[in-house]
Amino acid sequence: MEKQRILPIQSGLNFRELGGYPTKDGKTIKWQKILRSGYLSVLTKKDQNYLLDYGLRYVVDLRSDYEIIRNPDPRMTDVQQIPASVYPFSNRPSTSFSQFFKRLFHKDAVKKPSALSDPYELMVLDSHAQGAFRKLFQTLLKNEQPNKAVLFHCAAGKDRTGIAAFLILSALGVDQKTIEEDYLLSNKVLFGTTTIKTEATNNTAINRMNQARNVDLHSLRLAAKAITSEYGDMINYLNQAMVLSNDDIAELKRLYTE
After folding, report:
1. Which parts form a coiled-coil structure per UniProt (predicted)?
2. Where are the domains of the chain?
3. Which fold has domain 16-256?
């Protein structure tokens, strides 16, 4: 199949390839191995067949249990589905879901929030969210067959999925500039020439995040800073929070770079 960053999926949202990105050790991420996207619940049979032909083998769903029940992913032949809910956070029991999203939309653009006050910081530091991303890495390590792909997604494919891509690309040795470019590509795909349409839910807070907010580097850099502040560097974070040994990281590079 043609190598392309944005996949020609007509019925889904924000379907993209992580293949082709260079790593700092002179390698390149393999094509048709790691995919990211928004929701899958409205995929037509034609688009489902495209993904199956593309090599789709695992789908890691980062949405909340409520979102998954409300709009489940389609069942596709020989595709294993792994629920890995990033929300709700466990380290902030006194904070309601609505209050959490208010922070997301009303962050002070000048004064950076303190640790564990920003949603992106919480996504990388909260124990429940870390468990979700660990499931994603475990799935990546299981995907040993050639020409088989892992797809991870949330609703719009930009925030939870954006953090997941940041962690995966970091583990594979992609530089921060390239990671940020991939992150910002959501703005072009979702808000460049078409109006975003996301799956309907009864949760206004989730809908607001999925529909009304572009991604911005301020948020991603807060997450990166939180990792450095709490763990020292990304390798320590991967070792401790993601429970990936150095051998696991080497295996990820073997499986997904060339």
Report:
1. none
2. 16-256
3. Protein-Tyrosine Phosphatase; Chain A (3.90.190)
Q: What is the pLDDT along the chain (258 residues), one digit of tens a residue?
A: 789 999 999 999 999 999 999 999 999 999 999 999 999 999 999 999 999 999 999 999 999 999 999 999 999 999 999 999 999 888 654 444 455 555 544 544 434 434 445 789 999 999 999 999 999 999 999 999 999 999 999 999 999 999 999 999 999 999 999 999 999 999 999 877 433 344 444 444 444 444 446 888 999 999 999 999 999 999 999 999 999 999 999 999 999 999
Q: Of 223, 206, 219, whose CA–CA distance to 65 is shortest?
A: 206
Residue 7: Cβ-neighbour burial (10 angstroms; 0-12, 13-18, 19+) = buried
Name the residue among 107, 200, 101 with its Cα closest to residue 160.
101
Tell me the three-class secondary structure of 27-95, residue by residue: CEECCCCEEEECCCCCCCHHHHHHHHHHCEEEEEECCCHHHHHHCCCCCCCCCEEEECCCCCCCCCCCC
Long-range contacts of 127-131 (CB under 8 A, 24+ apart): 127/90, 127/91, 128/85, 128/86, 128/88, 128/89, 128/90, 128/91, 129/86, 129/87, 129/89, 130/241, 130/242, 131/84
* Inter-residue contact 174 to 18 (CB < 8 Å): no
